[in-house]
Input
Amino acid sequence: MLKSEAASWFRIYEMFQFQSFHMYGIIGVAVFLGAVTIAVIKRFNIKAFDGSPIVFQDKAISFKRYFFGGLIFGLGWALAGACPGPMFTLAGAGFFPIFIVIVFAVFGTYLYGRLKDKLPH
Output
């Protein structure tokens, strides 16, 4: 991630300003490879390492769920300058201020876990 500049705040800023294809290319390749991998797993009934079947659960379609979840995720990404993958990449590369972001990301995940039954889904 560091070599591809996917963890670069500048590249993320360029993406949100629609000034560069760089990040869209990286994300597009990841989505494509994920879709192909899932299709192969389903087509050939590939099993997990322990021999258990891999099952994909369908999710309920809900506008509110994806709108508000995406909005919160996007705001966090914009404020931190990194989404969860690059956060840990930056920590491993020695950018120690990112640990503040990681602590609050973990806290937000914990808070969601505590409140998820009370939230609209």
